[in-house]
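Hey, resending since the last one bounced:
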Amino acid sequence: MIRKSSASQSWIFHQRSSLWRSCKNFRSLKQIHARMIVDGFNCDRGALKELVYAAAVELQTSIEYAHQLFDQISEPDLFMWNTMIRGSAQSPKPWSAVSIYSKMERHFVKPDHYTFPFVLKACTRLSWINTGTVIHGKITKHGFHWNVHSRNALIYFHANCGDIAIANCLFDESGRGDVVACSALIAGYAKRHNLVAARELFDEMPMKDLVSWNVMITGYVKQGNMECARELFYSVPERDVVTWNAMISGYVLKGEHAKAFEMYEEMTSIGERPDNVTMLSLLSACADSGNIDMGETIHRSILGIDDAGVVSIFLGNALIDMYSKCGSIRKALDVFHRMRERDEASWNSIIVGLAFGGCMENSLCLFEEMRRTKFRPNEITFVGVLIACSHSGRVDEGRAYFELMKSRYKIQPNLKHYGCMVDLYARAGLLNEAFEFIKSMKLEPNAIVWRTLLGACRIHGNIELGRHANKELLKLRQGESGDYVLLSNIYAESGEWRSAENVRNLMDGSGVKKERGFSSIDKENDELLGFLLG
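The structure tokens again:
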């Protein structure tokens, strides 16, 4: 084996360090790894440490690659173990952090005070109380219970999902005066919806860090108290993107979309850079409010972040949903086709969006295309497929897809699937088939199912089935004026004026008030749409 000279080794090290500073995405990470192998650095411990750290921690989307790399290292040192635990704890699969720690124990690698805080972080995210309690014991066993990082991690774990009394005990022993410990306990109180205790501790803090401010603001947001959240927001000495996101998401959740958009404009006007969380909240607001102009503005902002015009899977899915709900199917399709990577939700978003947008043929074609990919259709996919069949009058295809869902994909129908099938038969005027289908359901039909049949009975003038559907509806809900109006209209349109009058009298006698401007057909469609999308 030919050894490189020390001068050559030094030159390669500096080249690697120079390359390392340009490691900004997964592609460049792999290029650097390949260069290291070519230059003989695959066995260099320092190089491997940097590579593992970049893959596991710096680039949050490359954790799977970090695991593959780590498995190839014959004798990883403690730094590498801790790095993998840290990266896994903050990844979408935090349970892998606990798994790595268990593997570390089996290899008789002695932990240090950096090991346990990240294991506890994973336990907290997973709400693994028993596992976290075991880790607490190991911290005590190894003598790290007085270490400030381990103590604060224990306070955070117990405050959020463990024993709040233990969290308070740890805090009283040595945590008072420590701003991180205070923030950890405040976060626990807020998560347990005890904002009174959280606010008392917050007000007592001699010095407040940004985390504690964000925790309190988020706590009020989750409680729906936007007035208190806004008061604290404008009292924060310095804000970050988390602070802004809390307020924006709060307004979106309350349906105050205009205020969410105003907050976003204020955020960007002062130079605060939005992140994916910001964009997801705003796209949700655009979809709910039908504000396609703001949606397009957000879309342009997202594209401006990446010159290549590439969006992440999550943002791509949100854009598809937004454009579909705003009625711009062409733009939804354009986003879908431009996505370099997709997941099941990407396919579901476009299939359902096309179905509701009136592009039934395209929806079913994309479903067949999905079946040819690696992605497996799920219950949401089939809701879109059955809607497409229902809205296009494809009764036979709808039946076939319903059976395919059960036989080929082993998906048990839920109420949404049953509702789609009843709607399929009802729209086609096959009321007896719809009624027989309802009777054969393995789940108890809800009010939406019966109302769908009742609405179809009005359209097709089927008095007998309408009377039965109304009877079942009244068992489930008594105060809905539309149920009475539908049946009354069925009688009236069939010339049975006495029966229509009797229904009106029954409605008045029950104290049910008819809504002004009420359209029973529109309400039926709105209820079914809300049910299927909910």
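The domain at 414-534 is CATH 1.25.40.10 (Serine Threonine Protein Phosphatase 5, Tetratricopeptide repeat).

Sorry for the duplicate.
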